[in-house]
Amino acid sequence: MTPTPAIMDEPEEKILTDLLRTMLLIRRFEEKIVEVYGVQDMKTPVHLCVGQEAIAAGVCANLRRDDYLVTTHRGHGHCLAKGTDPKILFAEFYGRVDGCCRGKGGSMHPVDPENGILGASAIVGGAIPIAAGAALAAKMKKTDRVAVAFFGDGASEEGTFQETLNFSALKALPAVFVCEKNYYATNSHLSARQSHDDIARRAEAHGVQAERLDGNDVVAVYQAAARAVARARAGNGPTLLDCKTYRWYGHVGPVFDYKTGCRPKEELDEWMARCPIKTFTARLMQKGLLTQVKLDRMLAETDSRVSQALEFGRASHLPDAAELTQHLFHQNAK
Amino acid sequence: MPWTKIYLDKEQMEQTLKKDGLRGISYQQAMLEAHEQAMQADERVFLIGEGIDDPGGVFGTTRGLAQKFGKDRVMDMPIAENGLTGIAIGAAAAGMKPVFIHMRVDFLPMCMDQIVNHAAKWCYMTGGRVNIPLVIRAIIGRGWGSAAQHSQALHAMFAHVPGLKVVMPATPYDAKGLFLAALNDGNPVLIIEHRWTFEAVGYVPHEMYQVPIGQSITRRAGRDITVVAISQMVYEAMKAAASLEQEGIELEIVEPRTISPLDMEPIIESLGRTGRLIIADVAWKTGSVGSEIVCQVCERSPGLIKSPVRKICFPDVPTPCSPSLEKAFYPGSDEIAQAARDLMRHQSK
Ligand SMILES: Cc1ncc(C[n+]2csc(CCOP(=O)(O)OP(=O)(O)O)c2C)c(N)n1
Ligand SMILES: [Mg+2]
Q: What confidence score (pLDDT) does residue B231 get?
């Protein structure tokens, strides 16, 4: 075992800019869905992560392309941050052949093996053990790859979470468990489901090291993830990142759910004021690392990339009915 | 009988029921009324499920009940299906009547251990000393790219397990009546509903009543072919029957309503007249309830069937997301009608 590196200093400028770029990409990608969903040709239930971008960006900036990632029904941002081309995501959401699953999966099941993404489960808690399994494989094959699971606060209530943490600690697996604690599971507040909100404590009870952080502070996430990934890579075991955040849109679909009485508007307002992108750009500008002109340029670049991706997705064609029975089993096992 | 009738649209229902001064409501309203009356009548009844107290209220079937009965009896829960099923089993064993509600059937596999190894076994294993009056509701999803993990039915898996009863009401009348019968049964009863039947309308009495578990029903009389239609497929079968009528082909439609225990009598009786069998289900073909039905027919009176049997089921693959593949995946009235024509042609050869 090599010792885990010490806590990082403030990241260098290039990293900060990249974090911003990733967050902008996720935000504008999700907002593009909001913009086009009313046309009703994107026939897949969308779970948007607007408001939570800092976690995906901060964690994935520490990952190598060959590190593993699994995610949930709310996984667009994780994939984009890990390097997935937005084109194959949009094509998937339109159910087209150029989609990352050839139209089989849709928004809830993105995959991108070239970028280490093994897939996504829409069964809550379903993919947490799968990440640990990837970590186990990485360890058994004596690689220094790391596996990351993203999941929500609701998923931390599942047996799979507890069982996986215990095993991961027992085997010192190179895994990072990232809990996006947005305080809701569909419309249920965390307080209706857990006796306390200290998810980190649950990890610690299993012998998994944990950090509690402001999931809307991309630098805090970046640094905590850097420590967790370094620990894992060095063979020093798993970490759980307990990231406090909030999703802006309703559980599913492109609408704000305060209108239907699911959550208080004041709560949303409070969290919108703590927008991870707005606070970060303000911080960068204050430090002289970002100007409005540069930000506008980044936004324009992002928007053009997102629009092109959408056009690509729409232009791709629907799978032929004959594809229905394909892919049930792998055909070329070696 | 007004309570056996299937209405293909609201207008048709209103015209028929108005004459007799009968009330017509939707499946969703019937379910809601059944829950409300059951809770009013018996304070042992409580509901538990993820988000059942939210404004959506399980597609309207629990809407407003938390306000009426309080959150102790309309209980939201952690996302922990297996453990909570065990907790519901324990509460049932100790004298409560829990109703555990899942928004999707796909979440039942999470509870497989508690349902299959515990709820289904407890009465037998204890020599009948401790029974489990537990009702579990779960809803089949469909459409808009619900995809592989939000659209399964799985009733055949549960029907395989002795000690469980499995009901699949398709009409508003049966939704209320079978729910109340399930609550009164004293055993674990799984109610599998189809989301696409929630807007279906029909006659539903105000008062509490029960539809006996384990009784099939003949929805439509017809000379030529027996169609056993499960859950939402009963509507597809009715549509197919309406269009085939013009071609001179008559379908007789039997709806099992209860999958386990399965009432074969009306099916056998109908086959005695038609000699032809189509089974339409909202699930995969292999190892399906249809397979069991055919087997029971063959065990009892193999001579009844005079042409090949057709199963109108999902192809044996998970549900795809893409609209073009979804379309290819789901069979409906057209497929039933085509199968019926094939069978009739087979006979004239
Ligand atoms: C096993 C299971 N139970 C219930 C559901 C329905 N469901 C889908 S998402 C969700 C909430 C998940 O909450 P959380 O884990 O906090 O993730 P978030 O949606 O907040 O990102 C629920 C209950 C499901 N998909 N799987
Ligand atoms: Mg959540």
A: 98
